[in-house]
Amino acid sequence: MINKDDQGSFEQSDNSWTQIFEFWRPELARPGDMDIEALVAKWGSDDTRVLEARRTAESNRRLSEIKSDLLRRRLALRFGLLAWSVRRALGGELGAVGIVRYLCGAGFSQLGQVAEGADAALELYWAGGHTPWTAWFLEELPEGRAHSLGVDEFLLRAFVVASLVALESNTPGSWCHSPG
Questions:
Q1: Which residue from 73, 4, 6, 59 is spatially nearest to 30, judged by alpha carbons?
Q2: Would you give the DSSP letter of residue 127?
Q3: Which one is predicted more confidently, 36 or 179?
Q4: Spatial distance between the Cα atoms of 50 and 125, rounded to a whole number of angstroms
Q5: Angle between helices 132-139 and 48-90 (to 10 degrees)
Q6: Residues 6+ positions from 95 with CB-CB distance below 8 Å
Q7: What element of type H or E holds 21?
Q8: Alpha-carbon distance 162 to 112, whole Å?
Q9: pTM greater than the 0.90 cutoff
Q10: Predicted confidence band at 38 (pLDDT cuts at 50, 70, 90)?
Q11: What is the pLDDT of residues 40-56, one digit of tens each?
Q12: Please, are residues 85 and 100 in contact by the beta-carbon 8 Å criterion?
């Protein structure tokens, strides 16, 4: 069950991660390729300063890849939470409605963002990776009976809901709007 108070906690946690990713910029760290070219021209490719700059640049590239992977996983997880919250909201849980509104406004307010989120979530789900939303759905089912669970159906439903909300978000008086 999602309580109305859960929305504030979720927003605070989500905003903390957003700030971390905004301020951690390994993709902008130096030296870059142009810096290394200039160093090679100045000192030659075997100079220890050039070799160190290359190691640093490679480390920066790797950190940038890690950041991209983390952002993609975060996107998938947020979309999975949206799918679960949409399911709960359609079941009448008012606390879930707040999380759906927040996610639609904060991360999925544009159709491109909705498509990217659905793609990331489905990619993770179909790849057999650990998806917490699978456990969330399973925990809600009665014990002692066999169940067939098509989680991709819930992801598709979230895609449709978020797409409709994104289309409406530019309409005056919309219930879902982008916070920035």
A1: 59
A2: T
A3: 36
A4: 43
A5: 20
A6: 1, 2, 3, 4, 5, 6, 7, 88
A7: helix 4-23
A8: 11
A9: no
A10: very high
A11: 999 999 999 999 999 99
A12: yes
Contact 89, 97 (CB under 8 A): yes
* Token code pair at residue 81: 């939470």
How far apart (Å, rounded) are the C-alpha atoms in residues 33 and 25? Answer: 16
Tell me the residue type at 138. Answer: L
- pLDDT of 23 > 90? The answer is yes
57-61, 80-84, 130-134: lowest mean pLDDT where?
130-134
Determine the length of the chain: 180
Which residue's entry shows tokens 């975060």?
74
Q: Is the pLDDT of residue 68 over 90?
A: yes
Backbone φ and ψ for 54, nearest 5 degrees, come out as -65, -40
* Identity of the amino acid at 113: Q
Please check whether residue 79 is in contact with residue 120, taking contact to mean a CB–CB distance below 8 angstroms. Answer: yes
Tell me whether residue 24 is exposed, middle or buried, using C-beta atoms within 10 angstroms of its C-beta: 0 to 12, 13 to 18, 19 or more: middle
Name the H helices within the chain: 4-23, 33-43, 48-90, 94-106, 111-126, 132-139, 151-168
Q: CA-to-CA distance for 30 and 60, rounded, in angstroms?
A: 8
Say which residues have a Cβ less than 8 Å from residue 112's Cβ, sequence separation at least 6: none
